[in-house]
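Saturday, quiet lab. Running sequence design on the structure tokens for the scaffold JK sent over.
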């Protein structure tokens, strides 16, 4: 099975949570290809010692670069820990990334609880993410098994 790619983005106030999440799942994350916006990725590289492909910073188009990777099926899940209480100057880029994840049915976590759920899906059921058209089939098979 191909290695799945996970994208990481975190607003400044959420970066410590990303580091804690990455440390908690470090062993499993070695099985994934990680891509991140520059600030988030550099922190993961230096503090968690995981390899990360760096995009531009979020304010310089990094979210758009990750959106393009989602649209090309190069990224299969996104963890984007957002600060919901602070207006972001690059909000249109953020909205575009959220939209492209919805269009391509790519799991997107915007807080720690959903980040844990996305990681569980990646680690326990990676076959659900092996192709956009297979997501519905995967859930149909899971439902049939549980009937």
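Result came back. Writing it out in full:
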């Amino acid at each position: 099975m191909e290695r799945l790619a996970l994208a990481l983005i975190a607003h400044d106030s959420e970066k410590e949570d990303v580091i804690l999440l990455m440390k908690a799942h470090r062993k499993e994350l070695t099985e994934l290809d990680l891509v991140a916006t520059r600030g988030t990725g550099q922190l993961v590289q230096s503090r968690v010692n995981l390899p990360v492909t760096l995009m531009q910073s979020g304010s310089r188009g990094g979210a758009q670069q990750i959106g393009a990777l989602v649209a090309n099926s190069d990224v299969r899940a996104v963890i984007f820990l957002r600060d919901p209480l602070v207006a972001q100057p690059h909000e249109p880029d953020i909205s575009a990334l959220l939209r492209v994840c919805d269009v391509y049915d790519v799991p997107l976590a915007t807080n720690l609880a959903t980040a844990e759920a996305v990681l569980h899906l990646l680690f326990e059921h990676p076959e659900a993410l092996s192709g956009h058209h297979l997501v519905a089939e995967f859930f149909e098979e899971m439902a049939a098994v549980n009937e």
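Notes for JK: The chain has one domain: 5-145. The longest helix spans residues 91-103. Ask whether to fix the surface positions before the next round.
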